[in-house]
Structures are given as C-alpha cells and as structure tokens.
Design goal:
By secondary structure, the chain is mainly α. The chain contains 13 helices and two strands.
C-alpha cells in the first residue's frame, strides 16, 4: 500500500475511535463537549497517532490494542494546539483555515476544553487490559509533555520570541514539537511489549522525525531554522535527520516500511 493509502486508512480508524471515545456534542454540559470535539475534528492529519500504530506494527504488536493509546496521544496534541493558540501564547485566530477554539467558544471554554482533553487522555490510558503496560505508557506520555518536555519547549519559545539563536531553536524544536512525536513512537512500542533495544530505536527514530517535522515547517513558513541555516541548509539538515531515522529502522525489517515511508512523507510534505 502506498503511503497515502496507508495514511487514509489509519486516519479513518483513528477518527472512528476518537468519535466513539469523546463525549457526544449534546451531552451536558454541551459547550465544553462541543469545544473538545471541534478541536479534535479540525482537519488534522493524525501523524502522531498513526506513528503510534505504525510503531506497534513494526514491533509485531496488535494494532487494535494500540488504538486507545494512539487516540490519547491525539487528544494531548489537540489540547496543546488549543493552548498554543490562546492570546497568552501565540495568539492565533485561525488554525487549518478555521477559527481557533478560543475564537469560536471564548477563552474560558478553550482553556477548559484543552484541560478536559488532557485529563481524558490519561483516563483513557488507564483503562487498558494490562496495568503494567498502562503505567509505562502513562509515564512515557507524562514525561514527554511536562516541564522537561513539550511544556518546557513552549516556555522557552515564549521567552525567546525575537530571533532565537540556533541552540535555543534546537531546544524549542526538540521539546515543543519533537518530544510528543518521539513519545508517540515509544508508546506504540510499549503497547507491543517490545524489548528495550527496539523501544530505544523507535524513540530515537521519533526524535529524528520530530526534529524534521519542525524544520520542514520552518522551511514552508520561511522562519526559524530556514532563517538560521538558510533554506538550502535547512533542507540538508532535514534530509540528514531522515537518513538517521531510516537507519534506526534496520532492526525491524519489512515491518517498519510504513515508518520509513512516513519519515519520507514528513520530509517531502508541502503543507
């Protein structure tokens, strides 16, 4: 299956699961549930949960058993975008061509919608069949999004709005964007009960493509790494990172083909 077909099939699976997990729009109190669903179903590509499923697959795990973990990852991602768009953060009025959550529902509901998605993600993770696996996944996700992970990256981003230098950009990238992407891969491996060697390889793979994701974003937006390294330099850096990501997949054989294709997809995306 070509990567576009694989992505569509996996996105359909994840969307159906998210729809079943999230409270219905008409469930009281309606406004918070409408805001949660509005933000989750705002047109995202589902790259992070797809990476979770593909990583589980690469380790020989049952993909169906990783769906709830993948959905939890996407809920955390949606929460992070809601808060990132707030006036106190990046102050964005639109995301993916639609009004951001706070423009649609007001700042108070937007903050609470993000909080609710984050909370529900961990509730969902706690319900898996194997408590030991649940705990390991919860720990991996919490570490990735805390003050030494995604939130830390957001803090440094807020504090360095005016032309951050390359080391600062690297820190922001690795934490604000890369940490959750790396955790998505690690969580897939944990779901499959993969041994440490494979788990570490997938975490490194995720770190490389997480970094690539932001570098490509900067190339497309003509900011960040594109300004620091020049467009050609940023493109070379992205290609170097993807080559390193591919090398991490060697121990998985053919089962890792979707992950290899996903790395190339992230490198070559145009939007």
């Amino acid at each position: 299956m070509k990567i576009t077909g694989y992505l569509k099939a996996r996105q359909k699976l994840i969307d159906a699961a998210l729809d079943s997990y999230l409270p219905a729009e008409n469930e009281y109190p309606k406004e918070i549930h409408r805001a949660m669903r509005y933000s989750v179903f705002s047109g995202g590509k589902r790259v992070r949960p797809i990476l979770t499923l593909a990583s589980c697959e690469a380790c020989g795990g049952n993909v169906k058993g990783a769906v709830s973990a993948a959905c939890a990852v996407e809920m955390v991602h949606a929460y992070s975008l809601i808060h990132d768009d707030l006036p106190a953060m990046d102050d964005d009025d639109f995301r993916r061509g639609k009004p951001t959550c706070h423009k649609k529902f007001g700042e108070g509901i937007a903050v609470l919608a993000g909080d609710a998605l984050l909370t529900y993600a961990f509730e969902l993770l706690s319900g898996g069949k194997d408590p030991a696996v649940n705990n390991e996944i919860i720990r991996a996700l919490a570490e990735a999004i805390g003050s030494n992970g995604m939130i830390g990256g957001q803090v440094v981003d807020i504090q360095n709005q005016a032309d951050p230098d390359l080391p600062t950009l690297t820190y922001i990238n690795a934490h604000k964007t890369g940490a959750l992407i790396a955790a998505s891969c690690k969580i897939g491996a944990i779901s499959a009960k993969a041994p440490g060697k494979k788990l570490d390889a997938l975490k490194r793979y995720g770190e490389y493509i997480g970094f690539t994701f932001q570098v490509v974003d900067d190339i497309l937006d003509k900011e960040g790494f594109a300004l620091a390294l020049g467009v050609d330099g940023a493109k070379k850096e992205a290609a170097r990172l993807v080559a390193k990501a591919h090398r991490e997949l060697g121990i998985f054989g053919r089962r890792a083909k979707p992950l290899g294709d996903l790395a190339d997809f992230i490198l070559n995306r145009k939007k």
